[in-house]
């Protein structure tokens, strides 16, 4: 895995409905955890952004599962933006045990900045680029 420092962590409350007949979190549920992490990340950086005119849309997801999650485990989603293109945002997320720091699952996601009115992708605003680079503690723009 990439050598990334995660500056955003969101504890996840496990729900009864997350578990399947094998007694562990069903693989389809992990994506909802990652969605919660993305939402919290963007809300932290852009608290006034309401997604009325623009949004970020998922265009690619790649998930690797390493270890099962069982009831009563304390888990969290860590989120980092690893790269910004002109229109694209590359995220690295992982689900970890808060008790052992074991990585349970890793997700790479590509999103695009999207104009809802025009129904097309658009360049990421400079204020977003600046805020993300500051938050990540490094320049994440594609070289």
Can you characterise this structure?
The chain has helices spanning 30-45, 126-136; strands spanning 8-12, 54-65, 75-84, 88-97, 103-115, 120-121. With 143 residues, the chain is of the alpha+beta class. Strands 1, 2, 3, 4, 5 and 6 form a six-stranded antiparallel sheet that branches. A hairpin with a 3-residue loop joins β3 (75-84) and β4. The longest helix has 16 residues, at 30-45. The relative contact order is 0.22.
Structural class: alpha+beta
- Helical region count? 2
The total of beta strands comes to 6
Distance between the termini: 20 Å
Principal-axes geometry comes out as globular
Secondary-structure element order, N to C: EHEEEEEH
The percent range for helix content is 10-25%
Largest sheet: 6 strands, antiparallel
Radius of gyration: 16 Å
Low-confidence stretches: none
Strand composition percent = 35-45%
Mean pLDDT: 94
Short descriptors:
143 residues; alpha+beta; six-stranded antiparallel sheet; 6 strands; globular
Care to give the gist of this entry?
The chain has 143 residues and is of the alpha+beta class. It has two helices and six strands. It has helices spanning 30-45, 126-136, and strands spanning 8-12, 54-65, 75-84, 88-97, 103-115, 120-121.
